[in-house]
Design brief:
With 307 residues, this protein is mostly beta strands. The chain has 3 helices and 14 strands. A hairpin with an 8-residue loop joins β7 (193-202) and β8 (211-219).
Amino acid sequence: MKFSNVIRTMCLKPFILLGAAALFLALPVAAQDFPGPMTTPPKAKSAPAGPPSSEPAQEPGPPQRLHSPGDNPITTDPPSQPVAEIIKRFAERETEFRIERDNYTYTQAFAIQTIDDDGRPDGEYRMVSDIIFTPDSKRFEKVKFAPPDTLRRISLSQQALDDVRNVQPFVLTTTELPKYNVTYVGRQQVDELSTYVFDVAPKTIEKNQRYFQGRVWVDDKDLQIVMTDGKAVPDIITKNNENVFPRFRTYRQNIEKGYWFPVFTRADDYLHFRSGDVHIRMTVKYSNYKRYGSTVKMGEAKEIKNP
C-alpha cells in the first residue's frame, strides 16, 4: 500500500475517481455489496498498540477462520530435508498456485480508514470489485461499489491499488525467487497447521519495482505459503514527497486441490511522516472464488441425414 502525506501531495488519480463515480451512479448496488466497518480478525495481532478501536463490538469479523500462531514458539529444530530443497519445492508449488489462481474469478473488497487521536475513523476509502473474465477470456476488474473518498490526511495512488493486487497477496514463484534472500527461521504450529517459517527480503531494490519484505509461513505438507507478515518496500522519501507503507498480514485458506488462496489482509499501523504520525486501519477481503471456464468433450463428427 502506497501512501502520501496529503500536506505534500494529493496523488489519487482523477480517472479512478471519475470511473468509480460513474459506476456508482449508473449501477444500483445491492445492500450485500456494501462492506461493513473493518474489524479485527480472530486471534490476529495488531501492529503497534494504539488507541482502542471505536468499531461496534457486534460487527462480525471475516467469515473465514484465520490462522494465528498464538503463543506457540518457533522451534529451531532442523527440518527433515535440506532447507534449499524445501525452498525450491515451495517455490514450485507457488508457481503452480499462481497459474491456478489466474483461472479463478473472485470478489475483492478493499477499505482503508485514518484513525484520530480518540480512536475514531476520520476518513475512509472503499472499493468493491469483481475480478472476472471477458467473453474472449481476458481478465479484468469490474468495480461494483466505490463511494466518494473521504480521506484527508493521506492519499492513495494507482500504485497503492497495484500493491493491494500484487504485493499483499504475496506469491513467491520460481521466477521471483532469485530476487529474494530466503532465510530459514524454524518451525511453528499455526492453529492446526505445522509450518516452516522463513524470512524474506529483496536482494537488491530495482528502480520502479515493488517488493515484499517480512516473514512467511509455509505448510509442511502442501508446501505452500499459508500466511505472510511484512510490508511493501521500499518507502519513497524525497524532498517534496513522502510515500510510506504499512505493515500488513495476509491469511490464506485451502480453497481447492491443496491450493492456498488469499482470503484476508489487514493492517493496523502508524505511518511516519515528517509532519507527524498517521494511524491507519486497512482490510482486503477476497471471496467468492470460482473457477472460470468449462470442459467440452468433442466426439467424432458424423453426418446426419434427413429422413
